[in-house]
Amino acid sequence: MEQRLKIIVRGVVQGVGFRPFVYRLARSHDLGGYVANTDQGVTIEVQGEKARVAEFLDRLRTDHPPLAEITDVEIAELPLNSRKAFSIEGSTSVGEEEALVTPDVATCDDCLRELRDQDDRRYRYPFINCTNCGPRFTIIAHLPYDRPRTTMRAFRMCPACDAEYHDPADRRFHAQPNACPVCGPSLTYVAEDGSEVRGADPLAAAVDALRAGKVIAVKGLGGVHLACDARRDDVVARLRARKDREEKPLAIMVSGMEEVEALCEVCPEERALLVSPRRPIVLMRKRQGAEISDLVAPHQKYLGVMLPYTPLHHLLLRDSGMVLIMTSGNRSEEPIVHTNPGALDRLTSIADGFLLHDREIETRCDDSVTRVWRGKELIVRRSRGYAPLPIEMPVGCDRSILACGGELKNTFCLTRGSEAILSHHIGDLKEEPAFDSFVQGIEHLRRLFHIDVQVVTHDLHPDYLSTRYALSLEGVRNVGVQHHHAHVASCLAEHGRDEPVIGISFDGAGYGPDGTIWGGEFLIADLGGYERAGRLAHLSMPGGDRATEEPWRMALSLLYRVFGEDLPPLRCAAVRERERRGWPVLARMIDVGLRTPLTSSAGRLFDAVASLAGVRDYISYEGQAAIELEMAADEREPGAYSFGLSVEPGEDGKEVLVVDPEPMVHELVSDLLAGQEASIVAARFHRGLAQITGQTAQRIRDRGGPGTAVLTGGVFQNMFLCELVAGELEERGFEVLVHSRVPPNDGGISLGQAAVAAVRSR
């Protein structure tokens, strides 16, 4: 008996070789029909013997291309017709768009072989790609994913490329960025004197400049990088001075795994991430004696390393034979540059030369940053290679939601039902260029996925630009979500959970409904709401926001809280600055609350301890003091400082547990006065904080709280603390949820906002 079926396949099924796979599969089973891209995904009609149709369906699910991700298969029976042949049809638009967009994919092994084959017509062509690799998200303007709807529309294929494109048996069948040296994009090198190298060899000119110790702007897949020799102190120092990036770690790119292993200790899971099609920057422990400038990642145990992910990068690394800094091409506080005019305008004071190309980038997209914790990925920045793949939330909503995220490390999120489409990394929304990128990104994804936003959710902080944008939109329902509840909800959402948990949310700052700055929170929370069950004790922030940039201020505040005006005779910046600036004035500010807001922030507590231990008194990038305190800690030290735990009435009349740092401060000061090293002080602080965190969670559970704990917030990017706290909780019988698919920092809160809004809007 024969059977005819209509099949709609949803998921990541466009731009990944799915149609030619279906074509070959149907032909091998002697089935008639067709396959086509539509706004719903991929539509297939097959007709033939029932047994062969059944086997076709089985293999459709199990043997699909490696880059495809099937989320749903809808099947309907149709009347038989006379069609015996099978064909690939053109794309159609049939209504509401439900197709997904594939992230950009690193160059595949087949294309690399051609890139290195002197007899291949694409030998050393910097834009070689096929159906299995190359640009996707960064070149798409509209769906369905066809060449005229991408930035490749400017390049008309030559006869040879056109033949490949239309041959279902070819690896480049319907590869939208398909091109060759005859018809495709090309390189240009612009030297510091403004002269251009085109037809000769722009790549050779760039390599010569790099070898001469110059800084080169390189236009890649999602934007422009700044590249230079990572082994020369003078070159790295010059880049830092020009880019105004004093000490924040810089990413490096190396040619292959042999070079990675010479620089870092690499576990199998880290290796898998490095060579994956996503090609993120992976944070790994630096080897002792690694041949790399100490200025690449000052005061760090880790290096951020990535492998080449475009043909241009492969050629650049191979020809130069160098380890290259490969950091975002931007000025401080600005988004990554992604156009040729933008590079020549914004980066002239930084770069000595520009290696550019004429394929436009539709959407700027920074490199992703990730690491491995307990054998699983813990992503730090989710962008190129990951965005805009959706995350399935445990709840759905029939109204589309826009979640605007926070102020720092911003991402936004759009929803369709239970699908959360998390954006690429936008950055810190403190300057107009970054905010413009935020607005443009929202409009692009709304247009790309045809999402008519009905609900807009945002942080409670009234001065965040993301909040102001959300409240400026008309004809939508607004949902405000508390910052730390959003952190907890983001971890729940990525794990597909919606039951109450003890959310341990530690970060630098978040708007508190009680008028204080939160950041060391123990919340009993689910997706629908939360109750504050515990917190770190309040500290004053002398000078307000200046205290986040000058950790000595938090150290002074902590000492004053414990010792009053009779400070111990420590040789630290807090005591020195007290004498230099006039103690009565500072004490008076703290006493009356003048420009000294109260905070329960774990990040500010880390700042205080870092300054007291002599690790960091002033910072040049966000979180620097806390990061360097982690780096300073001797992980072999078993000692732990003591914390107190008391009970105070909360805003709603319920009791709130308060973690008191006073015992810790006495022990820490005693160690410092005895001449104890910063490495021991840092380790004892970490272990003490982990122990009191476990004790506090247990007290909450003993009072009827949940038995599952969530670790979230930027502080839990600290792998030493994360391991200690998780261990403490597990010893007490807790199930512990930690981030993996979205960052624990503010880059993940838009997902949490979306999940909370979905529950509240049902």
UniProtKB/TrEMBL annotation:
It catalyses: an acyl phosphate + H2O = a carboxylate + phosphate + H(+); C-terminal L-cysteinyl-[HypE protein] + carbamoyl phosphate + ATP + H2O = C-terminal S-carboxamide-L-cysteinyl-[HypE protein] + AMP + phosphate + diphosphate + H(+). Keywords: Hydrolase, Ligase, Metal-binding, Transferase, Zinc, Zinc-finger. PROSITE patterns: ACYLPHOSPHATASE_1 (PS00150), ACYLPHOSPHATASE_3 (PS51160), YRDC (PS51163). It is an enzyme of class 6 (ligase). One of its GO terms (molecular function) is acylphosphatase activity. Residues 4-90 form the Acylphosphatase-like domain. The keyword Repressor does not apply. The active site is at 19, 37. Coiled coil: none annotated. Residues 200-385 form the YrdC-like domain. Pathway: Protein modification; [NiFe] hydrogenase maturation. One of its GO terms (biological process) is protein maturation. Its EC number is 6.2.-.-. The keyword Repeat does not apply. Belongs to the carbamoyltransferase HypF family. This is Carbamoyltransferase. The lineage of its organism: Bacteria, Bacteria division TA06.
